[in-house]
Amino acid sequence: MHPVHLAVLMTSHDHRARTLSALRALEEQRGLPVWTTLGVHLVDTGSTDGTPEAVRLRHPAVEVMSVGADVSRNQALRIASRNSRSGGGGGGPLGGTPGGPSHAWTHQLWLDDAVELFPDALATLLRTSEAAGSDAVVVGAVRNAYGDTVYSGRRGRSLTLVEPGAHRPERCDTYDGRVVLVPRAVYDVVGDPDKVFRHRMGDYDHGRRARRAGVAAFVAPGHAGECVGRPAAPGSREPGIGVREALRRVTSVRELPPRQWWVYCLRHTWPWAPYLMVSPYARTAARATVGRLRG
Predict the structure, then answer these.
(1) Residues annotated as region Disordered (predicted)?
(2) What is the Cα–Cα distance from 134 to 138, expressed in whole angstroms?
């Protein structure tokens, strides 16, 4: 294996404990080749709980940039990527110089701050990448506390979740952006997630664009980590809510905002785009109506 210089891209917002846990798990990775270096680039979007200060204190090698709370997760990831390109990307232990040295990174790793990597996760991702080649994306599947896969690669127009294999990689069409290894050669072709998407769908769009450019994507064997932290706020599937509230939630920026969903459908699902555009909203309204009638 050639020298690997990882630029780890992270975002945070008022999740101090879980961000520190994610960084600690990253620091405790084992089984990496001796020539592997790390540079972590964290963009914090207006935290008021002391997240940036705590990260600087406990992990001084992490490059921390604070931006406004109006900056979306997707845009923050793009900023972290820009920082990694301007400041190198390797670095070694998380106790050295912020941002790493000036040599260019060979891979970017998208890492959600809600994911605690298992100790051998990076080694598995890198082995899978070495086998797949420098023109392939490698996705790390993430499970919840009960052992269920909650984030992974996706297949088909319906974005079916891909279960990771026990011993071999599984092909996927696109991916959730929680743990994603992007080699430099892929980045040079596909670039960053598109700024038109604010929270969701930017990772799905990235995977679709990669596939269109001839880039393969694989889910690495096993689970890369576990999702930690407080549970997500109730969404449009919450039982008992009315149709108006269900539609308000499903069209919010946290789920499927119509303009961004239409861009995704138009790019990647034609000629079924008009049908797929309205179908999640129709299903949401129908589900809420039936739930109210049964309740």
Answers:
(1) 80-105
(2) 10
pLDDT in tens, 23-76: 999 999 999 988 889 999 999 999 999 999 999 999 999 999 999 999 988 999
Interatomic CA distance for residues 285 and 295, integer angstroms: 15
Q: What pTM was estimated for this model as a whole?
A: 0.89
Q: Which two tokens stand for residue 275?
A: 């049908």
Tell me which amino acid residue 125 is. Answer: L
- Say which DSSP state 47 is in: -
Last residue of a domain, one of 203, 227, 251: 227
Sheet with 160-161, edge to edge strand ranges: 160-161, 153-155, 174-175
What separation, in Å, do the N-terminal and C-terminal C-alpha atoms of the chain show? 59
Record the tokens describing residue 19, joined without a space.
């961000």
Could you report the per-residue pLDDT of 183-228, keeping only the tens digit for each?
A: 999 999 999 999 998 877 899 999 999 999 999 999 999 999 999 8
Range(s) of the domain holding residue 199: 4-227
For residue 7, give the nearest of 59, 81, 114, 113 by alpha carbon. Answer: 81
